[in-house]
Design brief:
alpha+beta; YaeB-like fold; 5-stranded mixed β-sheet
């Protein structure tokens, strides 16, 4: 049985993990998740940190943002007030296809 890691991903009360994010997160290999967790925690505490290279997704419009969580992995998210909504995590392809979903 594939082990679920969502219960071990504690990012705080102000972070909402959407169903799509949970699906893409659980599809990652264990080592990928371990490498990305510190970046997700950093995003939750300091979204303006330079290592995250946060920028707006201009093709979509609205308030969808892109964050670099590793060399080849990206995170799509939005922020409403103090709450972060994590939508999807994966390769750069999620950025290219985002206009189809958001």
């Amino acid at each position: 049985m594939k082990q679920r890691w969502t219960k071990q991903l504690h990012l705080g009360e102000r972070v909402v993990l959407t169903p799509r994010f949970l699906r893409t997160w659980n599809a990652l290999q264990h080592q990928q998740r371990r490498q990305m967790e510190p970046k997700l925690r950093l995003l939750a505490t300091n979204a303006r940190h330079p290592s995250l290279q946060v920028h707006r997704h201009h093709q979509i419009g609205g308030d969808i943002w892109i964050c670099y969580v590793s060399r080849g992995q990206r995170l799509l998210y939005s922020q409403e007030g103090a709450t972060l909504y994590l939508y999807e995590i994966g390769s750069h392809n999620i950025v290219d296809r985002a206009h189809e979903r958001y």
